[in-house]
TrEMBL record:
Name used for this protein in its record: LADA_0H06766g1_1
Similarity comment: family membership: Belongs to the MIX23 family.
Pfam families: MIX23
Organism in which the protein naturally occurs: Lachancea dasiensis
GO biological process: positive regulation of protein targeting to mitochondrion
Gene Ontology, cellular component aspect: mitochondrial intermembrane space
């Protein structure tokens, strides 16, 4: 009945009130997801909100910090470090969470379908049931649809979150193209980054 995935999350993403000023590598915390946390998404929604705020929502400010006069590295190097150490890692963690919940949704649907098929095989003839109780067919259909409601809500949430991620990545790529390197295709670069992390 489901699996778990544990993600290593920077502490500053897990708790926005922790201040790690002057610290390049924040302490890591674990975020464990399972089917229950995908279905009741308060923790995942909170993680997404904080993660997006700490990277995508403040991308221009982060780039301004890396481009400041106090920094001795080249602009390209500073941009690359921000992109790989913060932005891409945040995108990757969120996609891992979405992929996990998507697999849990597929497993849940398969389990529900199996239960439905077993019930259909063992129940009385629909004609006989309808003669005995004319409302039985409608009640039965309503009950079966209710069982799939959590699955429908989860798949809708996943679809919405993927759309948000797509928009955030495209907006970030535009900002990075202007502020860092106009010759880098950042979304393709992120795909290569993800492949190298496996």
């Amino acid at each position: 009945m489901g699996h778990e995935i544990t993600l290593q999350v920077p502490a500053r993403v897990a708790d926005p009130n922790l201040n790690f000023k002057g610290q390049d590598h924040a302490a890591m915390q674990t975020l464990t997801l399972n089917r229950g946390k995908c279905l009741k998404r308060e923790l995942v929604d909170s993680f997404f909100r904080v993660s997006r705020h700490n990277s995508d929502d403040v991308i221009q400010q982060k780039l301004n910090d890396t481009n400041g006069p106090k920094n001795d590295q080249s602009k390209t190097t500073r941009c690359r470090q921000f992109v790989e150490q913060e932005l891409y890692r945040g995108w990757d963690l969120r996609l891992k969470a979405l992929n996990f919940c998507e697999q849990e949704a597929a497993d849940l649907k398969q389990e529900l379908d199996g239960k439905m098929e077993a019930e259909i095989r063992t129940e009385k003839s629909p004609v006989l049931t309808a003669r005995m109780d004319p409302y039985a067919a409608a009640e039965d259909l309503e009950l079966r649809q209710a069982r799939y409601e959590q699955w429908r809500q989860l798949t809708k949430w996943i679809s919405n979150q993927r759309a948000v991620e797509d928009i955030l990545q495209k907006n970030a790529a535009k900002v990075l193209t202007r502020a860092c390197d106009p010759d880098t295709a950042y979304i393709d670069d992120f795909k290569k980054f993800r492949a190298s992390m496996r």
